[in-house]
Amino acid sequence: MNGHDQQKELVREHFTRTAQVFGDYALASRVGEAERLAQMVGAGGDDRAVDIACGPGTLALRFARHVRWICGLDLTPAILKRARRSAVEENLRNLAFAIGDAHALPFADGSLDIAVTSYSLHHMSDPARVIGEMARVVKRGGRAGVVDIFVPEDRQAAALNNRIEQIRDASHTRTLARSEFENIFERHGLRISDTHSESQAHAFDHWMLVAGLKPGDTRYQEARKLMEQSIPDDGAEFHPRFERTAANDRELVFDNTMLFIAGEKIGR
């Protein structure tokens, strides 16, 4: 089995194991992000779109309210089952879900208007190729949009940031820096039309729970140790700190930074 296939298996294993807890979290907390990206790529009633590595339908379920048709594509049957159930519950009929590899999209060149993905590229063996595939399948004037975490430009801080992420989730490959996202977009003929970044505070224990880890787990303990050790110099730029909860407990909290980036295809 080559490295790409091994990574695909890691992703399937992780999101099969966490399909329920991650699906609950993503669908409840990322509606606003999906709507922001839909606005940034100009999603409209005549558009045909794809949500790559769609997970529980984080983007697809929202975009379906704006576009003519959208396909949610993912590697993991368990998470797609969750997405299909939500689509039925919400009576959305203009979307489909299918098994597929983001590195080789099952769409003809220039056959779609919009390609989007959220929180997926840090699980990919070749994120640049995925963005290249997004550019390939949209027509000239079509749009591509990404929401993902990003790391500092400082290499040492980025390395520690990624190390903590990889301990938490074995399917995490590498988080890109903002400059890398921008360079990849431009390299694949996607003229950047809009960007936005924001920071969100997370309770460390909940972040672990969403990844299927609890305080007694070895990987939980290792990631927490590194996070706490980074507090004095903010060495991973997670901005970790202890805060008091409503019950007056001492809770480890940190910030994740997200990048929204939209681009228009200017090539053939």
Q: Can you give a write-up of this model?
A:
The protein has a single domain, classed as Rossmann fold (3-Layer(aba) Sandwich), CATH 3.40.50. It is of the alpha/beta class and 268 residues long. Strands 1, 2, 3, 4, 5, 6, 7 and 8 form an 8-stranded mixed beta sheet that branches. Strand 7 and strand 8 (250-265) form a beta hairpin. Helix 7 (155-168) packs antiparallel against helix 10. The mean pLDDT is 95. It is built from 10 helices and 8 strands.
Write the layout of secondary structure elements.
Layout: H1 3-17, H2 19-29, H3 31-40, E1 48-52, H4 60-63, E2 69-74, H5 77-89, E3 95-99, E4 112-118, H6 127-137, E5 138-149, H7 155-168, H8 178-187, E6 190-203, H9 204-210, H10 218-229, E7 241-244, E8 250-265
Parallel strand pairs: 1-2, 1-4, 2-3, 4-5
Antiparallel strand pairs: 5-8, 6-8, 7-8
Helix pairs in contact: 7-10
Keywords:
eight-stranded mixed β-sheet; Rossmann fold; 268 residues; single chain; alpha/beta; globular
Provide the number of structural domains: 1
Share in helix? 25-40%
- Mean pLDDT, to the nearest integer, reads 95
Secondary-structure element pattern, one letter each: HHHEHEHEEHEHHEHHEE
Low-confidence stretches: none
* Ends distance: 35 Å
Q: What is the tally of helical segments?
A: 10
Second CATH tier, the architecture: 3-Layer(aba) Sandwich
> What coarse outline follows from CA principal-axis ratios?
globular
Q: What does the main sheet amount to?
A: 8 strands, mixed
**Integer-rounded radius of gyration:** 18 Å
Give the CATH level 1 class: Alpha Beta
Oligomeric state: single chain
Percentage of residues in DSSP E strands: 25-35%
What is the fold named in CATH at topology level? Rossmann fold
Q: How many β-strands, per DSSP?
A: 8
SS-derived structural category: alpha/beta
CATH superfamily, by name, is: Vaccinia Virus protein VP39
